[in-house]
Amino acid sequence: MAWILLVVAGLLEVGWAIGLKYTEGFTRPLPTVLTVLSMIASMGLLGVAARTLPIGTAYGVWVGIGAVGAAILGIALFHEPAGAARVAFMVLMVVAIVGLKVTSGQ
């Protein structure tokens, strides 16, 4: 169950990272509220998952999901560059996330 909560927390991190772009410096009320709620929920779920999982693993996976997800959505939504090296490093991050899961013993 902790892993499911951690993945959801990571996806919510993607949501608030992308949401920051839509808040336009926290000047737009609806995107700001949704972004802040996403932040709270993401960190709350990370905290719950960290009760069971090692904190280094939980935090690493959370950050990794957030970073890869934000990069992918940045490419898709904001036309950020998607060069071969950038994609290769995102793949390496996914490998690291899977590696943390496999070696966590849980």
TrEMBL record:
Coiled coil: none annotated. The keyword Transmembrane helix applies. It comes from the Bacteria. GO terms for molecular function: transmembrane transporter activity. The chain crosses the membrane at residues 33-50, 57-78, 84-103. InterPro entries: EmrE-like, Small_drug/metabolite_transptr, Small_multidrug_res. It is found in: Cell membrane. It holds the Pfam family Multi_Drug_Res. GO terms for cellular component: plasma membrane. It is a multi-pass membrane protein. Keywords: Cell membrane, Membrane, Transmembrane, Transmembrane helix, Transport. Belongs to the drug/metabolite transporter (DMT) superfamily. Small multidrug resistance (SMR) (TC 2.A.7.1) family. This is Multidrug transporter. It comes from Deinococcus metalli.
